[in-house]
Amino acid sequence: MTEPRAGMLLVATPALLDPNFADTVVLLLDVDEQGALGVVLNRPSAVPVDEVLDGWGDVVAEPEVLFQGGPVGPQGALAVATLERPYDVPVGFRVVDGLLGLVDLDTPLELLRGGLHRLRIFAGYAGWGADQLRAEIEEGSWFVVPGEPGDAFRADSADLWRDVLRRQPGEMAWNSTRPFDPDLN
User: Fold this and answer.
1) Rounded Cα distance, 117 and 176, in Å
2) Are 119 and 79 in contact (CB under 8 A)?
3) pTM > 0.85
4) Residue (of 80, 60, 66, 61) closest to 6 by Cα position
């Protein structure tokens, strides 16, 4: 079993039928002995970012909507971004993995401009208690795979689940050919 860590992806297996996570790709943002936290990458909402966070719509990646990050804390928001330059970390940015990190949404936008390459805002998150994620992986609910820099910022995330599986080695890639329910995405 591949060990989950920050920056990796959880890809829902066909066995995962929970409507909160069926056919999802989750970017892990924090993994430690207390549990894990991540955001669902392929569930855009119809809510424009500017309706909720004034001015932030100008700096988010297309589409300029909030993404449904998960079922926990849907009234809160997390901002995921990549740095423009690795040596120029703006105030309010916390590195998660390489150039990927979290942005404090209380940071004034003028302090972030020019320092971020891409940014996306997620309403809510996915969370697991200690050993809960490991149990779900062992029962066959999740594939744990490496992420690629653009995964979190695709303009059209509808095919992200399939595309992530297609690039995996061996039998895991076969799962990308199964039909899925478009109403879940």
Assistant:
1) 30
2) yes
3) yes
4) 80
